[in-house]
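Re: export button greyed out
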Amino acid sequence: MATTAVPVPDGGIIVGKPKWRPLESEGNLAMLLLLPTIALLLMFIAYPFMRGILLAVTNSKVGVIGDFVGFENFARLLKDPIFHAVVYNTFLYTFVTTVFKLILGLWLALLLNRDFKFKAFTRAFILLPFIVPTVLACFAWKWMFDPTFSVLNWMLFKLGIVAAGAGVNWLGDGDLAMLSIMIVNIWRGVPFFAISLMAGLQTISPDLGEAAAIDGAKPLQRFWYITWPLLMPVTMVVVLFSVIQTFSDFQIVYVMTGGGPANATHLFATYAYQLGVGTGLLSQGAAVSLAMFPLLFGIVIFQLMYIRRVETR
Amino acid sequence: MSNVTIRQVHKHYADFHAVKGVSLEIKDKEFVVLVGPSGCGKTTTLRMVAGLETISEGDIMIGNKIVNELPPMDRDIAMVFQNYALYPHMTVYDNMAFGLKMRKFDKAEIARRVNNAADILDIKDHLTRKPRMLSGGQRQRVALGRAIVRNPKVFLFDEPLSNLDAKLRVQMRVEIKKLHQRLATTSIYVTHDQVEAMTLGDRVVVMKDGLIQQVGEPLELYNNPANRYVAGFIGSPAMNFADTMIEEVGGAVYATNPTMRIRVPEQIAARMGPHKGKPATLGIRPEDLHMASGADPEDLSFEAVVEVAEQLGAEIILDLKAGGSAMVASVEPTVKVKPQQKIRLGINPAGLRFFDATTEAAI
Ligand SMILES: Nc1ncnc2c1ncn2[C@@H]1O[C@H](COP(=O)(O)OP(=O)(O)O)[C@@H](O)[C@H]1O
Ligand SMILES: [Mg+2]
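Workaround output, generated via the alternate export path:
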């Protein structure tokens, strides 16, 4: 750029070279603004991730640096029956809870999207399970599932479903324990679905429903042909988030069952923790966590592709 | 027969009385326009006819059948919304076909009707597109198409043109008029634009504050407004008003104020009996004013000061001050005036209207 004439507010003109202002270049400014984030990401995501990969290909334990062993840890996992159960559990847990969270969340969202008294209050109230610290909530649930003194069994007893002293052993039986942690996960996850889907519903103009009503669509048809397809992009994003979270769930299982009884409720995260921190087999724990990665990656890619298809329709 | 009868209809929202006893008889094939300022209850009235809003009081009949309790789908009406309300995830074809699909028409018949409507509305080339790929005018045509394919008893329009730019609005107005001439379907059309109302309506209903002010053919409203509100609402530029006192001097009746002393024409003067000695509002349309010449009698003219002159080619719009009140006059394009110039304006006596100062009803 040669000399420029810059008009200034009072009508005068500044003639001369522009000052050296590096931050006026968009590229430089962007870099500067990104730096803190990049530093944080490197420190807290990239480094631990790399560290995890390095750990997984060694045989280090707590207190032992260990040597490079290649894929031995992974090979061992493939033969580990507990790991097989973990994979099955995680998929089952994620699938079942996501389906129920979606159905219940959608149902709640449709209800909350109507006009009624105390609407704002109810909407806030619905969020409670989401706001309470998970660990605290899980302890409360653990008490409720207690076989002897708990409120659940007391209710079943009062209703005449179980005999005195023969309460359901919620967390002591493998299948029931799985059911229990699923219930807690659903309880905790529904508000997120409900609120997000409600936000999605609010972006759909009520005129569309009215136009469809005039066009002769009954309420269920209006939902199926109008609301559901228009809500689909939001639904997919919410499901994606939820799947990622649920697949790597830790707190609920750790507090409620610790993975038991007899490893029946272990998920990837809890098993990795038990192996790596509980037993001190750091490298094997790291291998379990890493094994989660390609599976989750596959699911996410599939869903992202689906979202893109829905959005460009 | 698809006449629509609205009988003493009220709408109470939780804490608001939006429609206060509207009665209206719409004949078969008639095009009736509801017009009034924003918030006067036009949309609410239309939505009660559509069945989208419950009726608090009164009856609505379509084709001599009370429809108060019928859901929208059973009223055999079609509605065009202000923001088009097209289904964004469906193609133009599917948007128009949706109502027919819901009513279980067979595929061939649906195709025939949709293609026919697309022909009439000139949107044949866009049938496979999504609404968001269309311009505002094209979307409006699709919305019209969706209404006409079903061949309903009544069309309801809620400000269908207000999202379009001025030029397109005029064009679509003409198309809607043509469409009505072709299909002859009973129509109720809501707008806040009096020009739209005047040009489209077989009859126009002027509303204000939930009440009907006047119902009539466009020219009837223009020539014989029932009250000051209608007089000021219909016509553009709007009618001028001046506060005057009615006096009788030597057998003639005059409307006077410090800047004018206007002789009230005979046939109106005959009705002035109870108003003598009382205030009344004089109304005169800009097009009934002209530059006064020697031929204009003193008592049919007044003095005013030019503030702004707007040359429109076919006419000049003068913004004036006459005494304390602002006035607008439409004069011949050849007139030469300058701002601040004092001029004398002549009144066409046939254009004089008078309104009771308190009730605002026409005298
Ligand atoms: N759902 C509603 N609840 C309360 N008041 C409403 C509702 N809908 C409209 N109103 C009020 O009723 C009046 C008439 O509204 P409307 O019929 O939409 O007017 P317009 O003549 O502009 O179409 C307005 O004052 C509006 O605020
Ligand atoms: Mg309106």
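Residues B 42-43, 159 surround magnesium ion (ligand 2) (CB under 6 Å). The button fix ships in the next patch.
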